[in-house]
Design goal:
The protein is of the alpha/beta class. Helices cover 37% and strands 14% of the residues.
Length: 267
């Protein structure tokens, strides 16, 4: 009966995958094929133990128990650790855009599962409160929802730890321009004072898990983390569905380059 229903659905309601264009052969509220979903894999390779950036060289590990990227070595971020499920490119990037810009809400369920998988890499204390990064009220009215709220709610369906969600903890009190094309200083100034705490009593003395859909430069998440820490949060963690990886050189490529340089130096 299931096979008959799927055949009837495909005949009466033909559709293609919104990511690759292949015909959809299974009944689903999400217009994305299984091959595209299966291709969205977790980030692999050596990562910074604090911000989650990919480390370009195995020698970045050194003798440390917890390897750090150059940026985190120079200046520790205001959060304890950031984790992400996958790299912000390819099908995962398109899936996030389906939710954010095309209002394909069933995508939130898949993204929520990915977020939860990333969250499992954090040692969250009992009583931790999960705080989504808020949209400005104007943008929320235009979009009709905050995609991060939907992703968090979907992730919490898989969560068994004693943590709760605070959708009304932070607010974005002013609109900010796009961060694209800005220098690091301009990004910080763009976000300075953009967020305010609405319910400080909810986070005072508690650990907070700050959640966004994408970690790009970390400026937005760092600004939110500062606001939470100033209000009394004991520790701030960060989890996102995806992360922009600035460093895409593999360990093997670095080793090959190092050997080539050594041979050249040796004549």
């Amino acid at each position: 009966m299931s096979g008959l229903a799927e055949s009837l659905f495909a005949t009466l309601f033909p559709a293609d995958c919104r990511l690759c264009g292949a015909p959809l052969i299974k009944i689903s509220r999400l217009p994305v094929c299984q091959d595209c979903l299966a291709a969205m894999q977790p980030i692999d390779g050596g990562l910074c133990s604090t911000c989650g950036e990919r480390l370009i060289s195995p020698y970045a590990f050194g003798q440390e128990e917890e390897p750090l990227c150059g940026l985190c070595r120079r200046l520790a971020p205001p959060f304890a650790k950031a984790v992400a499920y996958g790299s912000y490119d390819g099908g995962l990037r398109e899936l996030i855009h389906l939710l954010k810009y095309e209002q394909v809400r069933p995508a939130a369920a898949v993204l929520g599962r990915m977020l939860h998988e990333a969250m499992e890499g954090l040692e969250l204390a009992a009583g931790t409160i999960v705080v989504p990064v808020p949209l400005h009220s104007k943008k929320r009215r235009q979009r009709g929802f905050n995609q991060v709220d939907l992703i968090v709610q979907a992730a919490m369906r898989h969560e068994s730890r004693s943590i709760s969600v605070g959708l009304d903890v932070l607010e974005r009190q002013r609109e900010t321009q796009s961060q694209i094309g800005l220098t690091s200083h301009q990004r910080r100034e763009n976000m300075r004072g953009a967020f305010a705490l609405v319910r400080p009593e909810k986070i005072s003395g508690r650990e907070v898990l700050l959640v966004d859909d994408v970690y790009t430069t970390g400026t937005t998440l760092s600004e939110c983390a500062k606001v939470l820490k100033r209000a009394g949060a004991s520790k701030v963690w960060v989890a996102t569905v995806a992360r922009t990886l600035k460093l895409n050189v593999t360990f093997a490529e670095v080793d090959k380059q190092d050997k080539s340089l050594a041979m050249a130096a040796a004549g």
